[in-house]
């Protein structure tokens, strides 16, 4: 709704996992290099962690895209809320094994075992990027351990990357025990946040900075350098700037946007009212 006002070709701070908007910061570049190392060195299992919203999912997808040009077969699976049978069915479908909707669990395991055996005989290599492992059902973690054990003993061509947010959970402790490499993705510092905002604006057709330096500093403070929060704040601030016919976004607009996000809106010029009126 505000694209034309700010001379933008698209929403610069969309929360969608669009690789075209991927910002390869020094942190993401290092994480991506380590993920590729997992593939090249055939590490059996690696733990990919970081606070929610730092960009683990899109980094996994960037890794998958890069590996399309390699001998590796790389597959991405989101385990959010999945139990064991759902996870194995999704995996079988992703590997194009043709599971029926009612394929029983033992048969799913046999399909996967046969697939991995064939891959070993042909010297194939498979990297599974498993996202939101800490938000899957406990049975899925059991299945991952079983799959990893099978791969370790019989199918050395299989490598797993387990992505999770919370490292203080019991599941994270179990994942740590079975992993042989840890990859961490931290939040942005102030300079990275500024570069991230301008990168997103540039890709959306705006070469000029729309946020004042004070506004960027406030965004860093409010978001704690988490890209997903930066997106949320900036998107709402651009909407407010459009509503007020501003030339740039200052610190007051950012503070008002943050209050709206936190559920404590200002008593006048509420951004939520602008959204409701559109």
Automatic annotation (TrEMBL):
InterPro entries: ExeA_AAA_ATPase_DNA-bind, P-loop_NTPase. It comes from the Bacteria. This is AAA+ ATPase domain-containing protein. It comes from Gimesia panareensis.
């Amino acid at each position: 709704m505000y694209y034309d006002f700010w001379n933008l070709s698209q929403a610069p701070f969309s929360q969608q996992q669009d690789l075209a908007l991927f910002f390869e910061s020094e942190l993401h570049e290092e994480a991506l290099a380590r993920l590729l190392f997992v593939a090249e060195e055939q590490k059996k299992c690696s733990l990919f962690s970081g606070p929610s919203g730092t960009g683990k999912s899109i980094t996994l997808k960037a890794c998958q895209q890069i590996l399309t040009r390699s001998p590796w077969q790389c597959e991405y699976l989101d385990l959010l809320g999945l139990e064991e049978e759902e996870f194995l069915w999704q995996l079988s479908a992703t590997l194009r094994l043709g599971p029926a909707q009612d394929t029983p669990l033992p048969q799913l395991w046999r399909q996967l075992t046969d697939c991995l055996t064939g891959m070993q005989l042909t010297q194939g290599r498979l990297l599974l990027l498993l996202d939101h492992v800490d938000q899957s059902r406990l049975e899925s973690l059991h299945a991952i351990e079983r799959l990893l054990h099978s791969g370790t003993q019989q199918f050395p061509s299989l490598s797993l990357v387990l992505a999770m947010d919370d490292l203080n959970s019991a599941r994270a402790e179990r994942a740590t025990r079975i992993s042989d490499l840890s990859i961490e993705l931290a939040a942005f510092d102030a300079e990275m946040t500024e570069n991230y905002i301008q990168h997103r604006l540039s890709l959306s057709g705006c070469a000029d900075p729309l946020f004042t330096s004070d506004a960027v500093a406030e965004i860093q403070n409010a978001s704690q350098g988490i890209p997903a929060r930066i997106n949320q704040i900036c998107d709402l601030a651009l909407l407010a700037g459009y509503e007020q016919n501003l030339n740039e976004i200052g610190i007051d607009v950012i503070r008002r946007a943050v209050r709206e996000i936190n559920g404590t809106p200002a008593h006048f010029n509420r951004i939520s009212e602008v959204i409701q009126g559109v």
